[in-house]
Amino acid sequence: MSDREALQEVVQQVLADAWPPLPEYGSQRSLPPVPGRLLSLAEELGWGDLEEDADGFTFTATVLEQLGSVLGPGELVTNLTVGPMLSTVAQGGIGSDRFAVSWTAPVWRRDADAPVLDGEGDQLEMTGSVPWVLGGAPDARLLTPADHEGRPVVLLVPVHAERTRLEQVSSSDPTRAFAHWSADAMPVAQTQVLARDDEAVALVAELKERVNLSLALDSLGVAKAALDLTLAYAKVREQFGAPIGSFQAVKHRSVDMFVHVQCAEVLLEEAVTRFGSGAAERCLRAKAAACEAAAEVTRSALQSHGAVGYTWEHPCHLLLRRAKLNQALGTPADEARRAVGASLTAALPKLPEGATAVDRLGSREGSNDQA
């Protein structure tokens, strides 16, 4: 058994003990469930320190995928996504192991309406808002880009502080608790400015990669859970005196679901193993593939379950909601594919002046004939 497989077993045991099982998830008194015990166990077991080893992100990825398979709490997902990247840049300690961050792409771009940081020295104040924040524990720190006199900065500030407001917002997915955060002339200490200029741009780029990979891993876990539910149901649900899994239409749909999961897993494994080595393209490709696979697999799972899948108590509709939400968060699939396509096109050899794409094709065919 490999180290990742051993970790996977441990994570599954912890989740079975401290988080509602998927078949019972929809029957909880309130959604999402309170994650207090699971957060405490994760801290005790050192899940936030898994990336101390050279290949540590592969271990974090294992945990994130398992959390996706049980619709795990957003607070823990945020901590595991953001925490490790801050251990090397935070000055004077980060003050807490619990974090919050916006999970929408516009906040990461320089042309977005980022919060504004005014003042100099120890007289800094921040004004602005950050939408779709996930992770709002009382002692959490918000990681956000900001603009300081036209220069990019990255701040790590308290979620709950003087002159701040956290407003809960609803989404189509009741298993995620989002909020809009705003500040009005909130005092900011120099130690809360993590990076400036090029360092800030690099830190935001890393945040973008980590959020996209986290969403992809969550989506893969969702897709696998939906596939497992469907296969188990197809074995016990009978129609015309036979399990529906014996019907050709259900078999074909199940195989299609399996293929979607496997293709996404291959791309995601490549992105995870090469994370941190200039693999931005792979992160985008994996995010687009995993999120779309989850959306398709959960849709098929709902169809295979029939009417029971639409009931509130059944987890099928919750898996579909999570899959569709993950598609909208981070870098959208169409934007990710455009970025990957532009990068691949830029890497092609330049055509001689006056040549056309047809000439390029002819030269390639000639090379193949010689080979």
From TrEMBL:
GO molecular function: acyl-CoA dehydrogenase activity
Domain Acyl-CoA dehydrogenase/oxidase C-terminal: from-to ranges: 213-330
InterPro entries: AcylCo_DH-like_C (IPR036250), AcylCo_DH/oxidase_C (IPR009075)
Protein name: Acyl-CoA dehydrogenase
Taxonomic lineage: Bacteria, Bacillati, Actinomycetota, Actinomycetes, Streptosporangiales
Keywords: FAD, Flavoprotein, Oxidoreductase
Organism from which the protein derives: Thermomonospora echinospora
